[in-house]
Amino acid sequence: MKKNDKIIIYDDACPLCAAYTNGFVKSGMIEAGNRKNFSSIDPALLALIDQRRSTDEIPLIDASTKQVWYGIDALLEILGQRCKWIKTTGQLAPVKWLLVKLYRAISYNRRVIVATEKPAGNFDCTPQFNVKYRLGFMFIFLLFNSLMLLPLHEYILQHSFFAAGFYRLQWAHFAIVGINIIIATRLPKQAGIEYLGQVNMLALTVVLLLIPLMLLNSVFLNLYDLNNFYLGALALFTVMEYIRRMKYAKLFTRYRHVVWINVLALTLFLVYLNTK
């Protein structure tokens, strides 16, 4: 089958989806004209796919035979035309099982990862709300964020205006987590899980943005002024990103008390960390 017979349809509200499908085009595995987005999809193409399944798994269509692959099978079909061993290896039962789990973890959570609204168009490809994959996503990154407290404190925070020791930072972190869980339990179930997903992803973003500074501090010493400037800029970004994510989750207007509780908790968090 020729590469120009394959049509891939992606979620254009998802920058991750847009990026990797554009990568297929640039690498020559998909023709530019065969990369379609859901917001402007042709009804004739839409009729060929399982619309419910396509919200969770990206579809790939053979324009000649009308065969459709979804999710991991679609990705293996594309990559296999360049490297046959990738498709062969990916079809092995244990490998396929792992790939499917990883794909679903990202796909079901892609909107909470990027927090972007769907564009107006022909088809809403918002993924299904999967509680199992959302809770798993949050647990893994809560664990990651918690484990990162030690190196971040060692290389950045203790060389900044923060006066707190590591154990105080740890207690403050878990207090914030506890407050967020309590807030979530007071909201409707789906809204509560959505809220936790958004604050979890915001925390992960902050940690990831601190890693380059941490690596810089591990090489160069006495970066006190740079650390303070970076932390100040990151604090401003965090506030703006928090507002954006709360608006996306429809929590900023519907549950305004959540914002005020967060502001109070963050204020107490900063005061606690700067008290000797």
Describe what you observe in this structure:
The protein has two domains: 3-114, Glutaredoxin (3-Layer(aba) Sandwich); 131-273, no CATH class. The relative contact order is 0.09. Helix content is 65%, strand content 5%. Helix 10 (166-185) packs antiparallel against helix 14 and helix 11 (189-219) packs antiparallel against helix 12 (224-248). The protein has helices at 15-26, 43-46, 51-54, 71-80, 84-90, 93-108, 110-114, 131-147, 149-155, 166-185, 189-219, 224-248, 251-254, 256-273; strands at 6-10, 35-37, 59-62, 68-70. The mean pLDDT is 89. A four-stranded mixed sheet has the order 2-1-3-4, covered by helices on one side. The chain has 276 residues and is mainly alpha-helical. The protein is globular, with a radius of gyration of 22 Å. A hairpin with a 5-residue loop joins strand 3 and strand 4.
